[in-house]
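Need the bound structure for adenosine-5'-triphosphate, inputs here:
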Amino acid sequence: MRLSRYFLPVLKETPSEAQIASHRLMLRAGMIKQATAGIYSWLPLGFKVLRKLENIVHEEQVRAGHIPMLMPTLQSADLWRESGRYDDYGAEMLRITDRHGRDMLYGPTNEELITDIFRAHVGSYKDLPLTLYHIQWKFRDEVRPRFGVMRGREFFMKDGYNFDLTKEDALHAYNRHMVSYLRTYERMGLQAIPMRADSGPIGGDDTHEFLVLAETGESEVFYDSAITDLKLGERVVDYDSRAECEAIVEEWTTPYARTDETHDEAKFNAIPEERRRSSRGIEVGQIFYFGTKYSDAMGATVQGPDGKSTPVHMGSHGIGVSRLVGAIIEASHDERGIIWPEGVTPFHAGIVNLKQGDAEADAACEALYASLTALGLEPLYDDRDERAGGKFATMDLIGLPWRITVGPRGLRNGVVELTSRRTGESEELPPEAAVEKLAQIYAGHVLRPAF
Ligand code: ATP
Ligand code: MG
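Answer from helper R.:
Posting the output first, comments after.
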């Protein structure tokens, strides 16, 4: 993309309504614009990041054997009356009446709708196990929408639902979700710690929330620092293997990690003092096993191997995709702007032309642009006729992890400059070597066609 043709409405001033870094930076970097309280338009740069996260979530869900689909945002109140949640859900549910006077709602979550689909089409235990998921906009009429996309009213969520014959099968689904979530967050360059949590209006006993540590997080968390050393890394996981999934869950749930809702002072104090940590965290996902709560209420049964009708065991599993954009920024920024991890960056590298209009500099930039694009990478070329300082400030603000600076002086010596946004370190090297280096850096990442 050439910046002269892009739509990147960066703000010079710091917006006064934004209280936390990610909100300020998303507004300043031209990623979002508030449409009304808690509802945002995703401008091109923000949309690009949101799509990257969505892709990672899809890939890891499909890898775990879960099946993507799409359910609508608007639902009929009738299903929610069946489960008993229409009255229970309270003021967070946006209720709408259509022209025929029928009660509708903008879905805050989808347990009812998916259970209805299940009961209409699945009748035998032979069709199990089954996990269906979608990534769709949700609406919760939060009392105090705040922090930009972190606590919006409309937000983008992946929600998945498992249907299993027995509790053991459903717990395997729970474990599978935990492992696939750990992998998802790692690919986004994040550490999200699973913490035993409270189940709230979804119901059930087994639930973990995934928290990204950040001072601006809304949850108070307590953990054993040993958990922050864990990494899935390159491990290949067989999601059909109960033992393998269970072992990973065991590894991540053995060190103490809880939110204030389930915090146990005695257990916490049993951790060696130097490893005891309390801080704040951002909830970026949650998994639940809730047994037959919805299948009992809504008659979601299958014929078991013994020929008897039996209610299915279910769980639901959510990732806050739009909140993650903010959470990544909270975890990765400095005073100059955002620092995107390579796995989610909207463009792989910025090209800054120090002397736009200079025939050699222009040609070198065009050549770099073409070589990077040919590798499947997406460069953002700042081809505007602007001062170098302004170009650097924009690149730093929008946070591309790598910048190639091209100027007549360097070109006379046959070099350009490659700079890491994270460390600030620069190295001078021939243009082809810079391209080669970026190819190596992004070798492990899935590249997507530009849109
Ligand atoms: P919270 O406690 O933050 O209100 P929740 O526990 O009610 O969230 P879940 O039902 O667990 O939310 O939804 C799954 C994920 O969706 C959450 O982990 C979070 O990342 C995201 N999410 C929930 N509410 C919002 C919101 N208002 N804005 C943005 N993301 C949200
Ligand atoms: Mg939650």
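Comments: The pocket of magnesium ion (ligand 2) is lined by residues 209, 283, 286 (CB under 6 Å). The two ends are 10 Å apart (CA to CA).
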